[in-house]
Amino acid sequence: MSKTRWPSAVMLALLVLLLGAGRYGPLHAFVESAKSASGKATYAETGFLGNRGRQAAEEQAVGGKPLKAWLKAEAQKRAIPPRDAVLDRVWKAIPGYNGRTVDVEATYAKAVAAGWTAESASAAPDKVPWVFKEIAPKVSLRDLPPSPVYRGNSAKPAVGLMINVAWGNEYLSSILNTLDEEHVKATFFLDGSWLSKNKDAAEEIKRRGHEVSNHAYSHKNMSTITDAKQLEEIAKTQTLLKKTLDIDNRLFAPPSGDFDARTVRIAAGLGLTTVLWTLDTVDWKRPPAAGVVAKIAAGVGPGTLILMHPTSTTEQALKGIIRQSRAKGLVPGTVSEVLSERRLDAAAPGN
């Protein structure tokens, strides 16, 4: 080959390689992504460099910022640290609450599949298909010394409905129907002597999906009886709950809210957390339902535990209590859900 023809051949070979890269490699994938009418990244995986072309298209965005890099930066803004369980001077034991972090890899995979770019994501960050992972607190309720619980964590938008049952059968069906209509589960603390005489009613409470827990056996003021008698009151109902309803209960509500340090210790020895309340409807005095609803509306907040009984007042006020809680963006539910560390999305106000 002559010296004059050699440079021409080299130039021709280089031109062929350049065109091939544009057709089959990352450059072509980017060009194809730029052709998307929607403005979101697309790509055509062709040729022996197709995988690299796809990766370039997935990460490329207008302005040159990779999508994954944008997600990592935004993830820091959306991270929420967990809250440890604490012993409060006023509220005693307060449960912890999980934090959250963004699962960048899972979010990235979903975002790419949906055609997001860094530019479209930054324009509508709340619409990105974020995937979160929960982070447990370092200190949980079980790590604290035995203590009574009056409320949940104030960061959790949940409200606990606790209904102590030792009488009031005539109002139970109506209360259960209201809970069904509002799609809410509550926690029913059952007096053991009531349970022994009302197994059908107790089974109906369980059948409707509500939490059932321990309210001692004969409604005695716990602080006025011996250690042995306190143990008998709690353990007898615990055995009855298991035998009658096949329930492994973890909560104990002392009758009339009367207890002492011995009560908390004895209950803890049986694996039970002693639970009191944040707001009391005082429904056993039969106040007007409208007044009870107004009281709850004024005082309810994240982590509130609301005490009720099967009375005519609660029968009439329950729907309003639920709806007033939701109006504040709170989710009404069981006591266990309020005390759980699991994260909970707030309800849309008014729903």
Automatic annotation (TrEMBL):
Q: Which domain of life is it from?
A: Bacteria
Q: Which PROSITE patterns match?
A: NODB
SUPFAM superfamilies documented for this protein: Glycoside hydrolase/deacetylase
The protein's matches in Gene3D superfamilies, at most eight in alphabetical order, are given as: Glycoside hydrolase/deacetylase
What GO cellular component entries does it have?
membrane
Coiled-coil intervals: none
Q: Which InterPro entries match?
A: Glyco_hydro/deAcase_b/a-brl (IPR011330), NODB_dom (IPR002509), Polysacc_deacetylase_ArnD (IPR050248)
**Biological process terms in GO annotation:** carbohydrate metabolic process
Q: What Pfam family does this protein match (any one)? A: Polysacc_deac_1
Limits of the NodB homology domain? 157-333
What GO MF annotations does this protein's record show? hydrolase activity, acting on carbon-nitrogen (but not peptide) bonds
The name of this protein is Polysaccharide deacetylase family protein
